[in-house]
Amino acid sequence: MRCRRSRCSRSTPRTAACARSPTSCPTPAGNLMTVHYMNRGPAAWIVLDRPEALNALDFGMLEELAQAMQRADADPDARVVVLTGQGRAFCAGGDIAQLRADMEAAPGQPSRYVDAVERGFDAVRALSKPLVGCVNGVAVGGGLELLLCCDLVIAARTARIGDGHANYGIFPGGGSSALLPRALPINLARHLLFTGALWPAARWHELGLVNQLADLTALEQETQTLAEDLARKSPRLLARLKQTINTCLDKPLAQALRDELGELRSHMQSADMREGTSAFLEKRTPLYSGN
Predict the structure, then answer these.
(1) pLDDT number for residue 106
(2) Cα gap 280→271, rounded to integer Å
(3) Where are the alpha helices (DSSP H) in 59-111?
(4) Are the CB atoms for 175 and 214 separated by under 8 Å?
(5) Which of these, 37, 128, 122, lies nearest to 79 by C-alpha position?
(6) For residues 140 and 163, is the Cβ–Cβ distance under 8 A?
(7) Residues in the chain with pLDDT values less than 70
(8) How far apart are the first and last CA of the chain?
(9) pLDDT for res 135
């Protein structure tokens, strides 16, 4: 589909932002078949684009998702990464038809599909930059698991989110059975995993797994505003904070506190901390280099 903006030559899928805000038409930065990558100011937007399948994760999409995340990590123009879906779904989870075909093709053998899930989700979790989930529609199964990889989540008020694996007799593989009990009270995690229930985004907001709600028509702009706010912070600081937060729960508290002090000592040698403290004393806005 070609962008509807009158003088835009984009042949990549038109985003909702193009239709609503033509002046903010994102600049394409190279696209794959089912995952699209575009730069919008300081943010790299990664768009899952199998709308006819509700952005279900097939072999190709999982591989392309890994490639897009690696590209974003290496992109000097991207300080923040946004993950969203094309159409009326964020992500409906795994491609069950492909999973079933993989089961029947080589019974008892290592699963190619599970290997693809591992590579895709490992790449998402390995991203060193802040990752913002922009939930435009249903997020179930692997869709929820992608959100559990995100650092911050903004959801449309109309979105519905849940695990759903139990509805189809499928064991999770993208992390929900490991991450939901860490993110929620254990009985709530059990309820979601056992029942496969989908909850409205407002419920997830109450629980703290969704940081912000937005009307669907304002979702992309509010996500971009958040991304631009994060991009004004020190990229070095945010990367170190992300790593520290992601590892602290696996350590005894005393060790985590010592590690935080070690990070502070190291960060005191950085150009970004010098810039931040200088800007405060000089009553000006800091300009961080990431060094």
Answers:
(1) 76
(2) 14
(3) 59-74, 96-105
(4) no
(5) 128
(6) yes
(7) 1-31
(8) 40
(9) 99
**In contact, 170 and 103? CB cutoff 8 Å:** no
**C-alpha 259 chain-centroid distance:** 26
Neighbours of 7 (CB within 10 A): 7
pLDDT score, position 108: 77
HSE value, Cβ hemisphere, 13 Å, CA-based, for 181:
8
Positions of E strands within 160-216: 160-162, 198-200, 212-214
pLDDT of 218: 98
Of the candidate CATH numbers 3.30.420, 2.60.120, 1.20.5, 1.10.12, the domain formed by 235-282 belongs to 1.10.12
Confidence (pLDDT) at 121: 98
The domain segmentation of the chain, as residue ranges, is: 16-231, 235-282
Residue 289 CA, chain-centre distance (Å), reads 24
Which pLDDT belongs to residue 26? 52
SS3 of residue 161 by DSSP: strand
- Dihedral angle, C-alpha 4, 31, 52, 142, nearest 10 °: -130
Single pTM value for the model: 0.88
Q: What is the rounded CA–CA span in Å between residue 209 and residue 202?
A: 10
Residue 23: per-residue pLDDT: 30
CATH classification for the domain delimited by 16-231, as one of 3.40.47.10, 3.90.226.10, 3.40.50.10470, 3.30.360.10:
3.90.226.10
At residue 31, the pLDDT reads: 63
Distance from C-alpha of 29 to C-alpha of 202, rounded to nearest angstrom: 34
Dihedral-angle region of residue 148 (phi above 0 means left; psi in -120 to 50 means alpha; beta otherwise): alpha
Structure tokens at 2: 């070609």
Edge-to-edge order in the sheet of strand 43-48: 27-31, 35-40, 43-48, 80-85, 131-135, 152-156, 212-214
Which of 132, 135, 128 has the alpha carbon at shortest distance from 92? 135
Q: What is residue 70's three-state secondary structure?
A: helix
